[in-house]
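README, section 4: Worked example with a bound small molecule

Sections 1 through 3 covered apo chains. Here we extend the same pipeline to holo records, where the ligand is supplied as SMILES alongside the sequence. The molecule in this example is flavin-adenine dinucleotide. Nothing else about the input changes; the structure line simply encodes the ligand pose together with the chain.
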Amino acid sequence: MPVAGQSPLSPAASTDFDAIVIGSGIGGLVTATQLAAKGASVLVLESYLIPGGSAGYFERQGYRFDVGASMIFGFGQQGTTNLLTRALEAVNVSLETIPDPVQIHYHLPDGLELKVHKDYEKFLQELTDLFPHEQNGIRQFYDECWRVFNCLNVMDLLSLEEPRYLMRVFFQHPLACLGLVKYLPQNAGDIARRYISDPALLKFIDMECYCWSVVPADRTPMINAGMVFSDRHYGGINYPKGGVGQIAQKLVEGLEKCGGQIQYKARVTKILQTNGRATGVELASGKRYTAKRIISNATRWDTFEKLIPAAQMPTSERKWQRRYQQSSSFLSLHLGVKAEALPAGTECHHILLEDWERMEEGEGTIFVSIPTLLDPTLAPPGYHIIHTFTPSWFHDWQHLSPTAYKDRKEAAADRLIQRLERIFPHLSTHLDYQEIGTPRTHRRFLGRDNGTYGPIPRRKLAGLLGMPFNRTAVSGLYCVGDSTFPGQGLNAVAFSGFACAHRVAADLGF
Ligand SMILES: Cc1cc2nc3c(=O)[nH]c(=O)nc-3n(C[C@H](O)[C@H](O)[C@H](O)COP(=O)(O)OP(=O)(O)OC[C@H]3O[C@@H](n4cnc5c(N)ncnc54)[C@H](O)[C@@H]3O)c2cc1C
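The generated complex, written as structure tokens:
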């Protein structure tokens, strides 16, 4: 592995790559590994010290904390939607994972307590016991999600911008393709209301969507809902042994095995253009590299307002910004706690909300992850990690003195801990370690504008139709990651990575 900050490249090689990938998030790394596996020469430039971005990790006092993601889809063993398994296999690496029998334990308003079991029938039964009058509607809605998933799960998931691939897949799976075309412009909320009328149950479906799409069902594309609501019972939720950071570490190992290179502490400040075509990048150090294709794993806001001057923003990007806005960032609390803080039978992932009106507000919904319940090696013996986060806006943390910033962080952490005591009654007296991250932390360490979690529709749109694919209006420049089709989440950005590499490889003639 190259030494952070030092170029491992010879001067001659430094001017000629097939592809440069800006950023080593999972979207960037899947693109890079797929291209390297096809024989392309690839350089990944990462501004931070380690790979992974929002799927990275950090270590403190014997604890290994996940930066963000911890409920991991895409590690199934069958079908075609297990994109993380496939991405690792493509570069001859693998990762041991630990299956989670319950996706989420919900703690919702009006005493609505419910677990989403891996076993589909067990989940439907638990939900039907709470809403017996909606028995048929519940099954019809979730069965329709399976129809979407079954269409996706038979075909290779590659670039929808590659006509030959589209033709091939259509002739191989005509019914599945027609099925997907039907669902592409639809949102989950419309389909839910076709079958379900109880407002409390519709609120629950809103939360089922919100907890990963950060918008209610009406603005959540049905394709994404079909994936999430079915794959959790099919491939399941599986936690990587050693922590989520292992996914990126393994992809880097595979990249290097295939001859690809990565540099850390290599912040790209500019995408270089020649006659309107992207031809290279410039780093904060002043170093320049050129390549036949440039792929940005930074968000679209960072790519088109910072790496390319905002004044040169293509019309298509302006239009996209009129349709999509930045979601909030998060206030994250990383806790090390004594094992006695957790009641017997505690599940790994929880969602807590006391008032439906506050679902989408700052400090409304609380997300909890306790990965040590699946992999105890992430904490010292007798201790657990609790990673909890809640939406928070960047502007609420600006223009504060260091003392005011620290005080505001501590007050927010206290509020979270107090609310969490509904699930873990003795939490505050069992704390061993505490670290608080704000939207400023997300912006600084993940390089994401305003620390945003990603794009969300400004208003109700036609499903996924408005999300851009990987090519951009700037010739030679591609985007990959959560601000491209199909959106946020590790398996989704892996999809984006497969698609991007496929399109770039076709353009390069591989
Ligand atoms: C708190 C939180 C919880 C989450 N929970 C889940 C979950 O449970 N399950 C799930 O599937 N998803 C979850 N997600 C979402 C998921 O983590 C993201 O959607 C996904 O990791 C985004 O991947 P990406 O490839 O788009 O890029 P990112 O992860 O944003 O990575 C981009 C990389 O590019 C680098 N970079 C940016 N600009 C530059 C530059 N100019 N020069 C060099 N390098 C640069 C950054 O340093 C970073 O490493 C969560 C996210 C957060 C924040």
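What to look for in the output: The first strand starts at residue 17 and ends at 22. The pocket of flavin-adenine dinucleotide is lined by residues 22-28, 45-48, 53-55, 68-73, 267-268, 297-298, 302, 330, 332, 389, 446-448, 453-454, 481-482, 488-490, 493 (CB under 6 Å).

Section 5 describes how to batch many such records.
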